[in-house]
Write a structure and sequence with these properties.
The complex is a heterodimer. By secondary structure, chain A is mostly helical. In chain A, 75% of the residues lie in helices and 2% in strands. Chain A contains 20 helices and 2 strands. Chain A is globular and about 70 Å long. The chains are: A mainly alpha, B mainly alpha. The A-B interface holds A 134, 137-138, 141, 145, 148-149, 152, 155-158, 160-164, 167-168, 171-172, 174-175, 178-179, 181-182, 185-186, 191, 234-235, 238-239, 296-297, 302 and B 11, 15, 18, 24, 27, 31, 34-35, 37-38, 41-42, 45, 69-70, 73, 76-77, 80, 83-84, 87-88, 91-92, 94-95, 98-99, 107-110, 112.
Chain lengths: 512, 112
């Protein structure tokens, strides 16, 4: 019962409403309130990561203790896996807020921006912490509605069209999730994830079990934009203001999509081989199709958005391999390696994709266009943007010593050791195509001597934007330290353990 | 069993509307129809034949009560649905101001 846990949801919620109210009277305040909110969140989430040491801790809201081992009331669960996701949410959020100081000054209604930003953070933290499935839905909608508004923040033609697509598909996804929750409640009469798992493992899994799994996978797959459900992502992520793109691509699709899929399919459902194969196939498909859609793009942010689909495919595929091996009950050390690789790649993707979107925003800020064909030779005039985006490009293409190399290596090694040779080859090929696509980005934007159609002199972006980009580039380098065995054991292993151990999650919460 | 099938048919009606209609307002209405079918389903699973409202009467505490939890859930879901619909309508009004049409075929700036 750690009293810090509910603060992770309460602080950004309070921050959002106070920003909204005080921002009407004092125009200078909203940005500093958002900064203070995110700073305190970053402090709390990193403190919980270090202090918890991977142990689970449960907070019962309102002090409703379990009755006869049946949990009642609302539970907030903080364990090794959610700790990592909370850390990336608050870190990328903090750097995006600092970046927004200069970037959002061009827009009107700054206080609405920071209020919605805090609300989105509250929603994501809630999804990650929630211990029952209905609260996941509620917090998911808080995060989703504020992100719809943030995507449309520019209120021009493109932004509105993108947000409409995002909203219609997001609404369909929400109803599918609500249907799945109704079916779960119908069959087991409980909403607590740990309790649902116990009810399912007691043989309460008839024909509706498959239907529930498919509904959950479709609903959260739409939120995570895995490939048959990806239509909204390139539009929404490229039309949003750049710090929001960094948040959406870097954090939102992970916290409300990938995280929930992994959590539910390992800790709530019993892993079945058929569903695991389906998840792996979807992951491999997103990985391959996403990168082929990306390589033809000329708009920087669309290119990055398609790469998000592809990189999320790596995570899903790798976790899926772990799931297949767990379901078969063989080679658990390979399964652990695959899941660790997937989670590690998820953290890395947050860092480098966040950085790349901030770079794209910096280019747009200085040059005024996002079209690669209209720019060139920016390496001289924007040295810091160029250097940080070079680091991020090497990271995403998997070049050592950057973090992307180590996580991709883990995924490919796990696939080979699990005898999924085709998937390993596919992962390597996709990585090469990613490198090609980012060489195109680097060459056209920075290392081209032809200045394109840029008329006026290009200057480097203001200090707050530089600060967050350089910090993220350093984070990209530092994250590769997680591959070292000593550090990996203390940071990544608790997350893998909670997913691998079939009943650990449930037994910790119900105390049985 | 019939009510559950009717509820499912309502969901499919909404889905059909979302997929085939060209007018943005009609798409929003179809989404609301889908939304209400899922609310109806939630309310139905808590219903017990012959059950009464779950307010414990001290004089006669042993009765058949309907399940109160789905009712609480459906109220929460309705509030969320209201926010979603309001947000969608606001965006549609903005789109009408920018594009001058509700026809989804005319709104295609973003391709590829």
């Amino acid at each position: 019962m750690n009293p810090l846990i509910p603060l992770l949801v309460a602080i950004p919620l309070a921050g959002a409403f106070l920003t909204m109210i005080l921002g009407r009277f004092f125009t200078g305040i909203p940005r500093y309130m958002a900064l203070a909110t995110l700073l305190s969140l970053a402090f709390i989430s990193f403190w919980l990561l270090i202090d918890g040491g991977g142990a689970s801790s449960v907070y019962t809201v309102g002090g409703w203790e379990p009755v006869n081992g049946v949990p009642i009331g609302l539970y907030l669960v903080h364990d090794g896996f959610s700790a990592l996701v909370l850390c990336i949410i608050s870190l990328i959020g903090l750097l995006s807020v600092i970046y927004s100081f200069s970037y959002i000054a061009r827009y009107t209604y700054e206080n609405y921006f920071y209020a919605l930003f805090c609300l989105m953070i509250a929603g994501m933290n809630g999804v990650v912490l929630a211990g029952d499935i209905f609260n996941i839905f509620v917090f998911l909608e808080i995060a989703a509605i504020s992100s719809y508004a943030l995507v449309a923040f520019g209120v021009e033609k493109n932004e509105l069209e993108a947000t409409l697509k995002y909203q219609v598909l997001g609404a369909v996804a929400s109803f599918l999730i609500l249907f799945a929750i109704s079916f779960i409640y119908w069959s087991v009469k409980t909403l607590n994830m740990a309790d649902i798992r116990i009810a399912f493992s007691e043989g309460n899994n008839g024909s509706h079990y498959i239907l529930i799994q498919i509904l959950i996978l479709t609903g959260f797959g739409l939120k995570a934009a895995i490939i048959p459900f990806h239509a909204w992502l390139p539009d929404a992520h490229s039309s949003a203001p750049s710090p929001i793109s960094a948040m959406l691509s870097g954090v939102l699709i992970k916290a409300v999509g990938i995280y929930v899929i992994i959590r539910l399919f390992f800790n709530m459902f019993e892993t079945t081989e058929g569903m695991a194969i389906l998840i792996t196939t979807l992951g491999a498909l997103s990985m391959a199709v996403g990168v082929f859609l990306a390589i033809g793009q000329w708009d920087i942010k669309r290119l990055l958005a398609y790469h998000s689909i592809s990189q999320m495919g790596y995570v899903i595929m790798s976790v899926g391999i772990g799931m297949i091996l767990t379901a078969r009950g063989i080679r658990s050390e390979v399964a652990a390696l695959a899941i660790t690789g997937g989670i590690f790649h998820m953290l890395n993707h947050a860092a480098f994709k966040g950085l790349l979107f901030l770079n794209a925003g910096a280019i747009e800020y200085s040059v005024g266009t996002r079209d690669l064909r209209k720019m060139g030779g920016l390496a001289g005039s924007m040295p810091f943007t160029s250097a940080t985006s070079f680091a991020a490009s090497l990271s995403i293409s998997g070049i050592p010593p950057f973090n992307g190399f180590f996580s991709k290596l883990m995924i490919i090694v796990a696939a080979v050791m699990g005898r999924f040779y085709l998937l390993a080859a596919l992962a390597a090929i996709v990585s090469i195509i990613t490198l090609a696509s980012f060489m195109k980005f680097q060459r056209y934007a920075f290392y081209n001597t032809d200045p394109g159609t840029i008329k006026n002199a290009v200057r480097e972006v203001p200090l707050p934007m530089l600060l967050s980009m350089i910090t993220l580039a350093v984070v990209c380098l530092l994250l590769s330290l997680l591959a070292l065995p000593g550090i990996s054991d203390t940071v990544l292993s608790p997350a893998t353990d909670i997913l691998m151990d079939q009943m650990k999650y449930s037994s910790q919460i119900t105390g049985m | 069993m019939t009510v559950y099938w009717l509820c499912f048919i309502l969901f499919l009606t909404g889905l059909y509307g979302v997929l085939t209609r060209r007018n943005l307002i009609k798409i929003a209405i179809s989404l609301s129809v889908m939304e209400f079918s899922s609310f109806l389903f939630l309310a139905l699973i808590g219903y017990i034949d012959g059950g009464v409202a779950p307010i414990v009467d001290m004089a006669d505490p042993v009765k058949t009560y309907v399940d109160p939890l789905p009712q609480a859930m459906v109220l929460t879901a309705i509030v969320i649905g209201l926010a979603t619909t309001a947000m969608l309508m606001a965006v549609i009004i903005r789109i009408y101001r920018k594009y001058g049409t509700f026809d989804i075929r005319e709104i295609k700036n973003l391709r590829g």
